[in-house]
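Consider the tokenized backbone below.
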């Protein structure tokens, strides 16, 4: 192992890691905002409301993330209507394309996680809320959504970890995230083993730190759950 080259490359790798964290954090926040209404629709008793978001979740869960990135970044530019629209300043930038795709992708998976959590809420809890006169809005705000979030915590944590690892695909659309920066450095010093080893260690550290934080958050949210 060429430790000298590893230490020389470390500052640039950490810069790439910061971009990776930025992409993951923002996309997960936006994906969470998308997922809540989609999950509520998917768990609706009305079949037409339940099936409205089905195409969205089916597409983003049924196709590879790499294909989705290419479709947005390279495919959108093929249409004159897109290039002439107000969206083009956003869609021509790799950073925004990656954020949009990551957010939509994790939103689809998160929506299904929350849908399952909503449907697993004991019916007695919902009946109790109805019995004391809660409106439907209050019932969802005070019982359904908080309870579903607690139930979904372990699975949602896994989804965020998967998103962290999947973010490595951002390099394929010219972004210098951790993987993209690693490949750039390798093109200069030809030390593939050393650079990929260092990048892998950084990914492991990021995952370890996230797991520690998430376990504490999960323990706090579930402390009153039987």
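A designed sequence for it:
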């Amino acid at each position: 192992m060429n430790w000298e080259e590893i230490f020389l490359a470390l500052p640039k790798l950490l810069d790439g890691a910061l971009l990776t964290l930025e992409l993951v954090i923002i996309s997960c926040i936006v994906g969470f905002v998308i997922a809540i209404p989609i999950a509520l629709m998917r768990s609706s008793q009305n079949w037409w409301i339940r099936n409205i978001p089905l195409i969205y979740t089916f597409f983003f869960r049924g196709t590879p993330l790499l294909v989705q990135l290419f479709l947005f970044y390279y495919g959108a530019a093929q249409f004159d209507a897109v290039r002439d629209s107000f969206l083009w300043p956003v869609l021509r930038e790799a950073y925004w394309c990656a954020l949009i795709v990551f957010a939509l992708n994790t939103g689809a998976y998160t929506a299904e996680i929350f849908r399952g959590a909503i449907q697993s809420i004991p019916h007695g809890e919902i009946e109790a809320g109805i019995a004391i006169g809660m409106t439907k809005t209050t019932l969802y705000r005070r019982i359904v959504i908080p309870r579903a979030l607690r139930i979904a915590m372990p699975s949602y944590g896994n989804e965020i970890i998967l998103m962290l690892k999947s973010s490595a695909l951002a390099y394929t659309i010219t972004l210098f995230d951790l993987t993209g920066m690693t490949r750039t450095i390798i093109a200069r010093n030809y030390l593939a083993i050393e650079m990929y080893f260092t990048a892998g260690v950084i990914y492991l550290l990021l995952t370890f730190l996230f797991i520690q934080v998430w376990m504490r958050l999960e323990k706090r949210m579930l402390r009153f759950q039987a």
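The CA atoms of residues 119 and 141 lie 16 Å apart.
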